[in-house]
Amino acid sequence: MRKMKLRQDDEVIVIAGRDKGARGKVIRTLPAKGRVVVGKVNMVKRHTRPTQQSSGGIVNKEAPLAVSNVQFYCSNCQSGVKLGSKLLDDGRKVRTCRKCGEVLDS
Ligand SMILES: [Zn+2]
Predict the structure, then answer these.
(1) What is the CA(50)–ligand 1 centre distance, in A?
(2) How far is the CA of 69 from the centre of ligand 1 (A)?
(3) What is the C-alpha to C-alpha distance for residues 64 and 99, in angstroms, rounded to an integer?
(4) Which residue of 3, 11, 47, 65 has the smallest Cβ count within 10 Å?
């Protein structure tokens, strides 16, 4: 299995599917399934049963997207990019933009 490079709070852009072109923040990663949940992207209507807390009904919720359908959004390149990685002098491994070389992890 490929290691998931995206992390929570990453900004991503959707490159395929219904929400192609939409941008949002990763709110959850599901590495075992190869999926990510992106805020306000891929919204689906969910029918919920009434509970003591709510009266139920239809709520809009984010559905997970296949990780292959999103790319990291590089604010420098203003587009979706592939991620590379680089070893810093202090031994830390950081992610980089393969297009502009910008270090993406602080
Ligand atoms: Zn870049």
Answers:
(1) 46
(2) 18
(3) 27
(4) 3
pTM: 0.85
What's the gap in Å between 6 CA and the centre of ligand 1?
Answer: 15
Report, as ranges of residue numbers, the positions in the chain whose pLDDT lies below 70: 1-2
For 37-87, the DSSP string reads EETTSSEEEEEE---SS---EEEEEEPPEEGGGEEEEETTTTEEE-EEEEE
Task: Give the Å distance between the CA of 74 and the centre of ligand 1.
Answer: 5
Angle at 68 between CA 79 and CA 45, to 5 degrees: 95
Can you say whether the dihedral through the CA atoms of 91, 97, 102, 103 is positive or negative? negative
Q: What are the structural domains, with CATH classification, of the chain? A: 11-80 (2.30.30.30)
Nearest-angstrom CA–CA distance, 57 and 28: 24
* Å from CA of 60 to ligand 1 middle: 32
